[in-house]
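step: validate -> pass
step: tokenize input -> pass
step: predict -> running
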Amino acid sequence: MLRQGVIGGLAILALVAMSGSQAQSSSGGASSGGAAPAAGAAPAAGALDFKTMTPVQVEAAAPKDSLKNPYADTDTDLVEQGHKLFFNFSCNGCHGGNGGGGMCPPLINDIWVYGGDDDTLFRLVTLGSQALQAKGYVRRGHENVVGPMPPFGTLIPTADDLWKILAFIRSAYHGDPKYKYGSPPPPPPPPDE
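step: predict -> pass
step: emit ->
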């Protein structure tokens, strides 16, 4: 009797999971024209289509230092979409409702733990801090509160959604303007005399 109950319960779970994935693919998910590709699938012909590719696919396909956010942090409608996504994926649970910090570092000051350029932030959110460090990234800045960043690349359906979240974070920045996109380049050396 117990065995039949367990088997019946597993069958119901399988049906619910299948109906959820079918509903997502028939509704198009977050992309236009179909569900987002599987996390391990290779991009078509090396193109980076942020609206259909997952963050994991984009991170794997893009050379280091090549990713740039296609969205301006001054577009109020887009920033509001990013703010909603920030809450939808529970970023606020660790970083606070407006990115001001909590049990993890604030996102709106001029301290970027691994660097504040678009490429590094995209990879940090996608991979998490441990996998980012495994790829050779090192801590540059230090906060009073620094917890490990979990990987969100398999949770956020499209790279486009992640770029919108990052646009929201940039829009909320309150630090020194020269550090908004990470550390400014060092000044050129003085001319030889």
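step: describe -> The longest helix spans residues 2-27.
step: cleanup -> pass
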